[in-house]
Structures are given as C-alpha cells and as structure tokens.
C-alpha cells in the first residue's frame, strides 16, 4: 500500500501567529517539484509567521516570496550566502529591523553531490572544505548570530536541517560528517541555551523527492527522473520517497509552541528507512 504525503501543507490554524522566522536556504535548486526550504517558508507563512527568505540565489528566494504573497502571507527575500558570515548577520538583522524580533531560525542550506562530494579518497581538499563550510559552518554561524537576540528575548526556536545520512550509510563523506556535526551542535546548543527558553532541534530527512536530490542525481548518474524516483521509493518501507511537505510539517511543529518541551532532539523523517535492515 502506498501512503500519500500531505501535498497541500495547509491547515486552518495559525500556529506561528506573530512569530518572525528567518529561513536560510529558503529558495530551491532548479528542477521539477518542491524543495525543503521553500516548503518550510510557505508552511510557516500559512501558519501566520512573517518570513525572511534568505538564499544564495535571490531569484529563487523571490520565487518563494511570490508564492507566499500570492496567498496573502508576509515575506521578504534576502540574498545571503551562508559561507559569508557578514551576509548571515545582515539577513538576521534585517528581519529584526523590519519586524522587531527573531522567534524562529530555520537552517535549511545543504549541498552534497553538486559540491564535489563523494568518497573521501576521491575528494579534493577544497571540496572537503566547502562541504564543511556550506553544510555545517553556515548553520553554526547562523546560530551564533541568532542566539544573542533570542537570549535577550528569552525565547526562540532553532530548527536545523541535518540528514539521515548523519546516522546511516552515505556515499558522501563530507556531507555525512558535516550533518553529523549539525546533530552534535544541536545537542550542545540545546543544553547551553535551555536556561534562556531557547529550543534547538534538528530534522534528519531521508530520501525526499526534491529537485536537488532527484535532478542532480539523475543528471550525474545518467538516469531519468522516473528511474531515480522508482529506485528511491523501493528503498523506503512506507513505499515512497518523502515530499518536502513531510519535512516542513515537522519543522512547523518544532518551530511552534506545541513543541515547547522538546529540545536537543534530532528526528528522522525517512519513512522508516533507517530501521529497514532486512
Ligand atoms: N532532498 C533530500 O533527499 C534530502 C535528504 C536529507 C537532507 N536533505 C537536506 O535538506 C536541505 C534542503 O535540501 P533540498 O533537497 O530541498 O535542496 P535545495 O538545493 O532545493 O535547497 C537548498 C537551498 O540552499 C541554497 N543554498 C545552497 N548553498 C547556499 C549557500 N552557500 N548560501 C545560501 N544558500 C545556499 C540553494 O540555493 C537552495 O535554495 C539540505 O540541507 C539537504 O541536505 C535533503
């Protein structure tokens, strides 16, 4: 039996009413379908958040904002490369300047194959360095800039997008190590900031049908989109690759007050794949 995802990402509630969210990587890679960061931005905005959509690609961030605006939501696009600390700081400052607080920080930026990742022995030192700087460094720096603001407010929620690769087998050494570092950082920051009522959690998506995951791999491994999707689906006990809404739904929960007693957790959204050892 195939279990369908929640493709609508809609509810009648306003679980992030009056909250200000900054999403790094709120655009998406070029290709068919929906990316995790864009889905999170749309989901947050539908639940009442004002969203600063930061991305290396301003064009892509603007597309996300257009979607949110077309539904009557409040969002602004901001160009920021997470390997540049000053741009991270500028994005966060802009949200606070515009809306007066920072309630949710969502770190979605991540790159694997397109960043020259692979087996460690096949990787250049430069690729290894850039895997670290994009996948881990960006998240760490964004937290570094958000925490003083959240401490002063005495509250906030940080959601870091890690990967099931952090705890399972991955063909990508740099990506896996960087995502495992995000899990470690999540635990560390959760413990050190609980006294300020700041919660820090991570999501570990499994095989999700985003343009980055599907198009980049199809191109690199010379397969059709359909072949790749079918291959990914057979690896998942629930019988399908996940959708970006599946990831965004957990992000919304963790960002909202409904998750008020949850911190330091790294949670899988993988259709049971990690437990499938048969
Ligand atoms: N798709 C999957 O199967 C899967 C599985 C596990 C984890 N993830 C994670 O989910 C997240 C989103 O993945 P996606 O598949 O939606 O990819 P995506 O490429 O569509 O989204 C990533 C976004 O980050 C932006 N970005 C890349 N480098 C940047 C930089 N240096 N500074 C600022 N922005 C930058 C891209 O422009 C893009 O908009 C990533 O962290 C990824 O590792 C995805």
Task: Please provide a brief summary of the model.
The chain is α/β, with parallel strands linked by helices and 278 residues long. Helix content is 44%, strand content 14%.
Written overview of the protein:
This protein is an alpha/beta fold. It has a single domain, classed as Rossmann fold. 44% of the residues lie in helices and 14% in strands. The protein has a seven-stranded parallel β-sheet, sandwiched between helices. β1 (20-24), α1 (36-46) and β2 (50-55) form a beta-alpha-beta unit. α1 (36-46) packs across α8 (244-255) and α4 packs parallel to α5. The longest helix has 29 residues, at 125-153. It binds nicotinamide-adenine-dinucleotide (NAD). Nicotinamide-adenine-dinucleotide binds at residues 24-25, 27-29, 35-37, 55-57, 60, 80-83, 108-111, 134, 161, 163, 205, 207-208, 210-213. The site of nicotinamide-adenine-dinucleotide (NAD) has 30 residues, from α1 and α6.
Strand order of the largest sheet: 3-2-1-4-5-6-7
Work out the number of β strands: 7
The succession of helices and strands, N to C, reads EHEHEHEHEHEHHHE
Unreliable segments (pLDDT under 50, ≥5 consecutive)? 1-5
CATH topology: Rossmann fold
Total count of domains? 1
Total helical segments: 8
